[in-house]
Amino acid sequence: MATEIGFFGLEKPVSFEGEGSRDPLAFRFYDKDRQVAGKRMEDQLRFAVCYWHSFTWPGGDPFGGETFMRPWMQGGDPMAQARAKADVAFELFRLLDVPFFTFHDADVAPEGENLSGSIDNFNRIVDVFAQKMETERVRLLWGTANLFSHRRYMAGAATNPDPDVFAYAVGQVKAALDATHRLKGENYVCWGGREGYETLLNTDMKRELDQLGRFLSMLVDYKHKVGFQGPILIEPKPKEPTKHQYDFDTATVFGFLQKYDLVRDVKLNLEQNHAILAGHSFDHEVKLAYANDLFGSLDINRGDDLLGWDTDQFAMNASEMALVFHEMLKHGGFSTGGLNFDAKIRRQSIDPQDLVIAHAASMDACARALVAAEAMLADKALEGPLAERYAGWDSAENKAILAGERSLEQVAERGRTLNPQPRSGRQEYLEAIVNRYV
């Protein structure tokens, strides 16, 4: 076993030991140098540790306070605590040997007396990040601004009825994008946790949607002005904390982006737990994003099937993820995106090593799912039956219909001579196929 040092009590990074290992601090499936679909496994999965759940969440819930009692949460000089938190964060990045991390601005540094003071605090910790990144291999997958926790945002940020709150949020987002650009982040995420409504009695929905469209348009313009090359990502979620959020799901966001002419510059960061809350599967949201050229990145977590809220548990369902990765590999995998662990250990998991074990176990589950997806794709296990089901549309005549070369009258006349019979959708057969691989 490794010599115990540091906050997590571990000296050596978690390493690959193979399927026979029983060490919870070792990888059984995640071999970062293994070739999968033409790339190293690490380059396919592009794991990122998130700053907020891992180092800022104290373990509280609506009925109880903190359980983790982390040293940097126990009072003292706020900036000193922020630097201590950064030290522990980079320790975890090193132990997991992950290529990326992500952050919210408000979780990186404490607020100041006004926006200028908050940005100054934030930039001082960004300086710490930049210095650490010079000697560490970890990079920034994306940054974002927290526009939902502070009471000023209780009625939204971009959609707030108070234009001063709107302006404050713009300043906060500008600083977060500047920091992301400085640290060579590969994306910038917008998550509108309060961009929605609690009641329609006090909500002008058209006005709020127009405000949100203008907010994102300004962000896109600024991105081009400063030369930020990555996409802006929106993270859909239907509800919680608000009753209804304007970025409800992939389909809703697609319509919004079309209306405000943002489709070229804005993509999606999708999450399993949010998909379930919207009444969809994770696979559904990913496939629809690809269908509309909106796929960007993934938050990799899961919800609890028995609970109707965003539990942000570590993803462990290899079968579910295999279908998502199958779709990704079909389209060549990630470009600027990755798998961000927007996940929390349970509030009873109070040992520091629980955080390491949770990440390692989920990385293993993802690796197992990726290998299964590669095998399914290579064997055309799902693609073959799918192509067969739609094969009729490959004829010249039927292609002409879809190409707009036949009128309604012409197609209707052809239909008069037909008597088509239904064919089995073979759902159970296909489900059995998936089970062969995972």
Automatic annotation (TrEMBL):
PROSITE patterns: XYLOSE_ISOMERASE. It comes from the Bacteria. Keywords: Carbohydrate metabolism, Cytoplasm, Isomerase, Magnesium, Metal-binding, Xylose metabolism. It is an enzyme of class 5 (isomerase). SUPFAM superfamilies: Xylose isomerase-like (SSF51658). Its cofactor is Mg(2+). One of its GO terms (biological process) is D-xylose metabolic process. It catalyses: alpha-D-xylose = alpha-D-xylulofuranose. Mg(2+) 2 binds at residues 271, 274, 310, 312. Mg(2+) 1 binds at residues 235, 271, 299, 342. InterPro entries: Xyl_isomerase-like_sf (IPR036237), Xylose_isom_bac (IPR013452), Xylose_isomerase (IPR001998). GO terms for molecular function: magnesium ion binding; xylose isomerase activity. Binds 2 magnesium ions per subunit. Its main location: cytoplasm. It is found in: Cytoplasm. GO terms for cellular component: cytoplasm. The active site is at residues 104, 107. HAMAP family: Xylose_isom_A. Homotetramer. PANTHER family: PTHR48408, XYLOSE ISOMERASE (PTHR48408:SF1). NCBIfam families: PRK05474.1, xylose_isom_A. This is Xylose isomerase. It comes from Plantimonas leprariae.
